[in-house]
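REVIEWER CHECKLIST
Item 1: Sequence provided? yes
Item 2: Single chain? yes
Item 3: Sequence as submitted:
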Amino acid sequence: MIVILTILGSIFLLYLIQWKRTPRTLPPGPDPLPLIGNLHQFARLVPLKTFHDWHKKYGSIVGLTLGPRTLVILGTHAINKELLGGKGQIYSSRPYMPLVTDHMTGGLNTALIPYGERWKTHNRIHLALLNPRMARLYEGLVDFESRRLLTGICSTKDFSTVIYRYTASLILSLQYGKSVDVNDPMSRDFKEITHKFVKAIGAGNFLFECLPALQRIPPSIAPWIKESQGLHHSATTLFSSSAEKGVNAKEWNWSKYVRTLKDAHGMPEEELWYLMGILYEAATDTSVAILRFFIMACVLHPSAVEKAQKELDSVVGDSRLPKEEDMAQLPHVSVFINEVIRWRPATPEGIPRATSADDVYQGYHIPKDTTVIVNMWAMHMDPNVYDDPESFRPDRWIEKPDLPLGIFGYGRRACAGRHFAQTSLNSVVSRMLWAFSFSHSYENGRRVEIDPWDLEQHGASLRPGPFSADIRPRDASRRAVLEKGPNVDRGVEELLTQVDKEIS
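Item 4: Structure as written out by the authors:
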């Protein structure tokens, strides 16, 4: 009892001191309660809807307090570009989240490391693997795996599983020289770890991070701590064992190549394998969501599909698949991709940032160590930037080519893999539009409707709810091309060997 009272008393004093220190010039936001601030609202919020409503009520910058923490939510492209890009020296760090940073990732996850020399080293290694030149070298592998995807779409109604296999096999081939099928144990283990991590870093999961008393509870009686530590152990074991297989593989892969990089010299092996292993998370979760939203858009907006397909027919014809070099002549395909990403952003709040110094913006005081949330959903639904933002209208990008798109981030922490991600999306979207017709599926003679607002927010990720679609080859000529499938004689091993030759 004495221990409990001591803890409660400590909590009260801590929050009382923090409450007195809370700056009164924060941006406007929902009314806080004494001691806990807005923590009661975060405990039950649905971030996507709640944040959007707050922006409508309080403006493009929303300020809150979560116990001892200060938090601001940024809701326009202009503000994010000005702060995260223009003031990168202040807005490029990450908030300290004990459960995720310490227990779940052991301080090894590049995405969560504070801005500084260690993060710069990690980022240089990621850029060495994913810069524009390297992304071009991976086009052969993207071609091979996207052909496998097309074959899979032809043979099953379960397009979600086919899409996941594509993204997983593409990144695991690069990481460890291993092309995988859906039920491959390595793919399954990586998927499980990614699922848990993405859920943990969502904007609504701040309760543990904002209550210091919870952080002092011994792991032996705190199941959430034990679970997080177990996930970290599973991740490091998986990343290390997979890298060992990659190093011993015959063909070129990142596990071999990364050890030759200057920035990797002297880095503990566990950290090196971890910073490479987490690229799976970035490459699969977001891409799967984007491609599922793409299929949803194709079913719901046939006129936009028809316009892109006419362009493909004119440029590519019906006897071959589109290639990356065709994209310069396919503006309606490019804007279709842009509109899918804008219409349904797969990471509606991204990973929170943190200020490394005090700042004053528009007369508001934003203290050091403020958690900063980039509200991608509000940005992409801003009627001051996008006419009729809730409508799916790819032509808006033709009419206004300079429209902003923030999916790959801002400033110093912009996504290192954006060039590779764009190459992958170009390949899959252009080829699926070239190859297939999209329509509603039918069950027992009745059309199965799709609700575009049936959305699932899973931590940091936004996904469409379950839906079905009828996807089939557009005509006999395209069916014949699809039936050829990928060139199995030029498999992953040969393609990776070719990358090695190009690098050398």
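Item 5: Key structural point noted by reviewer: The domain at 1-6+34-503 is CATH 1.10.630.10 (Cytochrome p450).
Item 6: Recommendation: ____
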